[in-house]
Design goal:
Structural class: mainly beta
CATH topology of the domain at 3-114: Ubiquitin-like (UB roll)
Domain POTRA: 198-286, 289-372, 375-450
Number of strands: 39
InterPro entries: Bac_surfAg_D15, BamA/TamA_POTRA, D15-like, OM_assembly_BamA, POTRA
Shape: globular
Keywords: Cell outer membrane, Membrane, Repeat, Signal, Transmembrane, Transmembrane beta strand
Number of helices: 13
CATH class of the domain at 3-114: Alpha Beta
Organism: Thermaurantimonas aggregans
Subcellular location: Membrane
């Protein structure tokens, strides 16, 4: 039996050794403890030394050692304990000592030296904005354990950040410093040399005979050549994007029938002494193939003729795998074979195209169908609505328990939930949970609430009225029934989908306007019939003189509206009908409207409004597809025709005591997404105002004023303001004249037209702050009568702007437009104009 001499206080058991000779043991030998090789010992106690941040019991749990364990030297159990501790990557040094012995009982000490922890780090060689972005990338925090892996990972993230921006020559030096202010702490320094950005000069294709370089370069969406005119595309080289674009090159070939096309190789050539590279891509095109015979197997619901009509692929068409997949499963408009079955309840439908014969350049396909049985909806649930009540959501849901499953109903439900404006459209989700055994499906909708209330607080210069202060509150998910429920005020009663708007504007005595409106979108709670009640009162007091002053010039208007809306089912359920009864009372005190002998008096406007709308846009804030078309008719009773009175000698007060007129307006906007988050908005509108009685003539109120930002501001004399950027507010009116530097407005127009095209770029889809810059061209005009109407005589403008939508403040923006034509009364072009946009779109 062999006797080993072990240090009495510091007997060391290393990871790579079992029990070694005393001369090999780290530490100084003072006394020895005799342990016998091959003899079993019991662990009588275990102590922990060195570690400052670890729990004793946790260390024992990781090591696998416990008091009472029996070990035989050399010990595999102690070796495993050291390995287990090393795996945690928390320690710089690990040692286990035998510190004492009593008979067959030994005492162990586990010595752990912690790895240093990060106290702080710094980044040099870059500007502050870049430092902030890099901090977000590497995500280092005080207290992180500093390992080689942590340092390498942080360095690689910095290099990857620069590669993504085209800086392939970037260098990162990592410096470590001991933090003398803290125990066992390190300071990391990242010293960066950015170098120059590398851009792509040329993209060359080799071996392409049937598809030109230009078409292949166009197929590459993210990898572009450097060209001075290409302001919307970056020419930096990003390897990940380049690899994705190589797949798009193959997709381009396959769309044209070259199903076997492949990339043989690609290479990068760095131009000496320059910051440009050339890309060379070698292609093997292969042969071109065509569709030949297409047969359907397993279809009982629909005959071959119907399926072929949906497929829209004929014998002799180039073999296009992408087109085939779209026509079978994923047409953007839902006109594919899969949707045909899914819209008739066949949730368990399965379709597999199989190439059964390839002969010369032709391919025969079998469409193997397993229809399954029709599925019915079992349960419909909604998750995530912690503010909006369930009934507000469920009344918009088109998938009802007991109905056949229809894919189009789910898509329409998602649109309707988005249109509510209460939820983040980017995070709306649906999860159908099928149960093949019962032939049913549960549908789970997930929503994420967003802020819907809006605050308008602004100050502006209102011409001769001075500073105009505005305070507006819009509560777009209001709950009137909980007004008297104290628990519901958090901070306001909400969740029933109602709208409450409060607004006040004032400059003191010069101008005041107060308005309130309330909308219940589902009157009675059973059908989508809305009720809107609104009222307002405004006072315009030029000069600010008090009541009773003979020089006072004031116009007071009081208005009230009660309207009912209805969602129609014909021609389709994108149509809505709104009808309203409106009343305005005008009081003139020495106020000039441009009507002779009518500076003092009263006018009353009782009118009926008919609005027919079709809106199938995908989302309300930044639509990318669909259209919004509105037809409006507003008319008063024909009092003069009903009474038969002769108004030839009537005073203006008699003529305009009860206003009579009719107005037509047509407004349409179409949205087309030409690329991801790049949208063209095409808009056209036209309005006409007529009279029943030529003797009375047109109303002095309700006329059209064109020009400017289109915001009502402080002008509330019954006019209808039509924005036209690049021109002053209300400047395009018939009969306007120039007096010195001032343009004297006429009485407004009775027929106008306006056309707009915008190119919009969504740069921030964040629902809390959606941002999009835009370019626009615009044209319009305003005429005093139908006889004067000239459809091609237009005031033209162009410009750029930016919009930001924040749920708390609504839509805000600024436009800079250039008017090419002189406004009425002037000879010089309107020139550059700045317009501030609040709440409305052009």
């Amino acid at each position: 039996m062999k006797i080993l001499k072990i240090p009495a206080l510091y007997t060391v058991l290393l990871l790579s050794l079992y029990i070694v000779l005393p001369s090999q043991i780290h530490g100084q030998v003072q006394n020895t403890v005799e342990v016998t090789e091959g003899l079993e010992y019991e662990i009588g106690g275990i102590t922990l030394a060195g570690a400052q941040h670890l729990d004793y019991n946790l260390v024992l749990l990781i090591s696998g050692l416990n008091v009472g364990d029996r070990i035989v030297f050399p010990s595999d159990k102690i070796t495993r304990a050291i390995k287990n501790l090393w795996k945690q990557k928390l320690f710089e040094d690990i040692q286990i000592y035998v510190t004492g012995k009593s008979g067959r009982i030994i005492y162990l000490e586990i010595y752990l030296k912690d790895l240093p922890r990060l106290s702080k780090y710094y980044i040099t060689g870059v500007k502050k904005s870049r430092r902030d972005e890099l901090r977000d990338e590497i995500k280092l925090n005080r207290g992180n354990i500093v390992t080689d892996n942590l340092i390498i990972t942080a360095k690689n993230k910095i290099l990857k950040y620069y590669e993504d921006k085209g800086y392939f020559d970037a260098e990162v030096e990592v410096v470590t410093e001991r933090d003398t202010a803290e125990n066992n702490a390190l300071i990391l320094g990242f010293r960066i040399k950015e170098g120059e950005r590398i851009k792509i000069k040329e993209i060359e294709f080799i071996g392409n005979k049937n598809i030109s370089d230009a078409k292949l370069r166009k197929a590459m969406k993210e990898t572009k050549r450097h060209r001075w005119y290409n302001i919307f595309r970056t020419s930096k080289y990003i390897d990940e994007k380049f690899r994705e674009d190589l797949e798009k090159v193959i997709d381009k070939y396959q769309e044209n029938g070259y199903r076997d096309a492949r990339i043989l190789k690609d290479s990068i050539y760095r131009i000496p002494g320059d910051n440009f590279i050339n890309l060379y891509i070698t292609i093997e095109e292969g042969n071109k193939f065509y569709f030949r015979n297409i047969t359907w197997i397993g279809n009982t619901k629909y005959p071959d003729e119907v399926l072929n009509a949906v497929l829209k692929i004929k014998k002799g068409d180039p073999y296009d795998a992408k087109r085939l997949s779209e026509r079978l499963y994923a047409d953007p408009n839902g006109n594919d074979v899969n949707s045909l079955y899914m819209d008739n309840g066949y949730l368990f439908f399965n379709l597999t195209p199989v190439e059964v014969l390839i002969e010369n350049d032709s391919i025969d396909l079998e469409m193997r169908i397993r229809e399954g049985r029709q599925a019915t909806i079992n349960r419909v649930t909604v998750n995530g609505n912690d503010r909006t009540n369930d009934h507000v959501i469920m009344r918009e849901v088109r998938t009802r328990p007991g109905d056949l499953f229809r894919k189009s109903d789910i898509q329409r439900t998602m649109r309707e939930l988005s249109q509510l404006g209460f939820f983040d459209p980017q995070q709306l989700n649906v999860n159908p949970v099928p149960n093949p055994e019962t032939g049913t499906v549960d549908i789970e909708y997930t929503v994420v609430e967003r802020s819907t209330s809006q605050l308008e607080l602004q100050g502006g210069w209102g011409g001769g009225l001075g500073i105009v202060g505005t305070l507006g509150l819009s509560f777009n998910n209001f709950s009137a029934r909980n007004i008297f429920n104290k628990k519901a005020w958090a901070p306001l009663p909400s969740g029933d989908g109602q709208t409450l708007n409060l607004r006040a504007q004032s400059t003191g005595r010069f101008f005041q306007n107060y308005s309130i409106s309330f909308t219940e979108p589902w009157l009675g709670g059973k059908k989508p019939n809305s009720l809107t009640i609104s009222g307002y009162h405004s006072v315009q007091n030029f000069g600010g003189r008090r009541i009773g002053d003979p020089l006072r010039q004031a116009l007071n208007i009081t208005g009230l509206t009660v309207g009912l809306g209805k969602r129609l089912r014909w021609p389709d359920d994108y149509f809505t009908l709104y009808q309203a009864l409106e009343f305005q009372h005008y009081r003139l005190d020495n106020f000039e409207l441009g009507i002779p002998n009518f500076r003092n008096g009263f006018s009353n406007n009782f009118s009926y409004r008919f609005v027919l709308t079709r809106n199938n846009t995908d989302v309300p804030i930044f639509p990318t597809r669909g259209s919004n078309t509105i037809f409006t008719l507003k008319l008063t009773p024909p009092y003069s025709l009903l009474t038969g009175r002769d108004y030839s000698d009537a005073t203006p007060q008699d003529k305009y005591y009860l206003l009579e007129y009719y107005k037509f307006k047509f407004n349409t906007t179409w949205y087309t997404e030409i690329y991801k988050n790049i949208v063209i908005s095409s808009h056209a509108e036209m309005g006409f105002m007529g009279t029943y009685n030529r003797v009375i003539g047109l109303s002095p109120f309700e006329r059209f004023f064109v020009g400017g930002d289109g915001i009502q501001n402080f002008i509330l004399d019954g006019r209808e303001i039509i924005g036209l950027r690049g021109y002053p507010n209300n400047s395009i009116v018939p009969g306007a004249t120039s007096t010195g530097q001032q343009s004297q407005l006429g009485n407004g127009g009775v027929l106008y037209s306006k056309y707009t095209a915008e190119l919009r770029f969504l740069i921030s889809p964040n629902p809390n702050a959606q941002i999009w810059p835009l370019l626009f061209v615009e044209a319009g005009n305003n005429f005093g009568s139908f006889r004067e109407y000239r459809p091609f005589q237009l005031y033209r403008s162009t410009g750029a702007g930016i919009r930001i939508f924040m749920p708390m403040f609504g839509l805000l923006g600024i436009d800079v437009g250039y008017g090419f034509d002189p406004v009425p009364g002037f000879s010089a072009p309107s020139g550059w104009r700045t317009h501030f946009i609040i709440g409305q779109q052009f």
